[in-house]
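@channel anyone free to eyeball this complex?
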Amino acid sequence: DIQMTQSPSSLSASVGDRVTITCRASQSISSYLNWYQQEPGKAPKLLIYAARSLQSGVPSRFSGSGSGTDFTLTISSLRPEDFATYYCQQSYTTPHTFGQGTKLEIK
Amino acid sequence: EVQLVESGGGLVRPGGSLRLSCAASGFTYSSYWMTWVRQAPGKGLEWVANIKPDGSEKYNVDSVKGRFAISRDNAKNSLYLQMNSLRADDTAVYYCARERYSYGHPYFDFWGQGALVTVSS
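replying in thread with the prediction:
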């Protein structure tokens, strides 16, 4: 199975900050990488698919990049509603494994 | 409006069985791959299984092989997860999700609200 490793596992930041979350795959997955946001008690929400494509309705302050084994999710200017947990997920092959999550907290 | 509504969760004893259902509406259900993802309390997301639009292909994670079975009824716009030989580590919220493809890249664009399954004696 392909292992997905996110860093950091948790992150404290302030409203207006620029933050970057990294995701590394244990083997090359081309651009088969998706990012999700999950608020406490809610279902995950798709943010980015195919490494860099923004899902419809998602604010443009979210962006994704990378290919092969190394990927990043960037939030250009944090807003209060962005404090949540973020997951990367590979869709290159089954099982479609997720990273362990990055919890973004208010500083 | 796309809607996915899970049902069938609850408390079950170790070794028992449970069947989850997911009712889909607002899209052409028979055209989409569908997926189950679970989340143990306080833990991350784990992909469980998926199924092709016509039901002819199914895949699942090793930890549920031989115990869980995914199926669908396109006439009823419904997805199912039959869970047998349940263990304590199967305790989780189970989400159904629609799987969409963009130039061959699959992703989960709509999710249900989740159904809690608790395995405990």
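from a first look: Chain A touches chain B through 25 residues (CB under 8 Å).
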